[in-house]
Design brief:
By secondary structure, this protein is α+β, with helices and mostly antiparallel strands. It has two domains: 6-121, LON domain-like (Archaeosine Trna-guanine Transglycosylase, Chain: A, domain 4, Roll); 132-210, Orthogonal Bundle (LON domain-like fold). 30% of the residues lie in helices and 31% in strands. It has helices at 32-44, 135-150, 169-179, 184-192, 196-210, and strands at residues 6-15, 24-29, 48-55, 71-72, 75-88, 91-109, 115-121. A five-stranded mixed barrel has the order 1-3-5-6-7. The longest helix is centred in the middle third of the chain and has 16 residues, at 135-150.
Length: 214
């Protein structure tokens, strides 16, 4: 059996949102610890890790006691920088794409506040065709994408980025997880599921409860 791939000293970005594989994440960065992280990642072409906060704030509070610091879920998603702009000194506008899920095996907070971790990559979702009884979930997503195109939403601002894999359980489920107004903890649990068909079934239940259909 192939050993899972590990990454050492991966920089982490704890956030109040969940990044899913294949997802697009815009970030407005102004803290020194993350400005430095993004510059280094951009120069080297390396990813950083996005993890969901369980305690603490996205923005560091210098006077907060250590006991009230950040804690986060052990499972997150690698983020690769696809666009980066510096509209003014001390401010970076970044857009990232989620790639692979990982699990933190060891983490450490450095003196300037940046978290780094040793992580093990989790298996990617296997391609699973959408069964007929869940086709409405993909149809509803396609209808939303088409309506955004008709409104001439610029490609970088689209909440769902091409290519559109509307016949794949994981891709459709992940995009709905990003779009639906459900608590971040629910999105985290859906992201952690290793069964993309089950993830899509649970998303379908949320859509039905919200009265959304294809």
């Amino acid at each position: 059996m192939t050993q899972p791939l590990t990454l050492l000293s991966l920089p982490l970005f704890p956030l109040g949102t969940v990044l899913h594989p294949g997802g697009s994440l815009p970030l407005r960065i102004f803290e020194v610890r993350y400005l430095d992280m993004v510059r280094k990642c951009q120069r080297s072409g390396a990813p950083f890790g996005v993890v969901l906060l369980t305690q603490g704030s996205e923005v560091s509070k210098a006077r907060a006691p250590d006991a009230a610091g950040e804690t986060f879920h052990a499972i997150g998603t690698l983020a690769t920088i696809v666009e980066c702009a510096t509209p003014q000194p001390g401010l970076m506008m970044v857009r990232c794409t989620g790639t692979h899920r990982f699990e933190v095996t060891r983490s450490e907070k450095l003196k300037h506040g940046l978290w780094i971790a040793d992580v093990t990559l989790r298996p990617d979702d296997q391609p699973v065709a959408i069964p007929p009884d869940l086709a409405h979930v993909a149809q509803a997503l396609n209808a939303l994408i088409q309506s955004l195109h008709q409104r001439a939403v610029p490609a970088p601002e689209m909440p769902v980025q091409a290519p559109y894999l509307l016949d794949d359980c994981a891709w459709v489920a992940n995009r709905w997880c990003e779009l639906l107004p459900i608590p971040a903890e629910h999105k985290q649990r859906l992201m952690e599921l290793d069964n993309p068909l089950l993830r899509l079934e649970l998303v379908s239940d949320v859509l039905e409860g919200a009265g959304i259909s294809g």
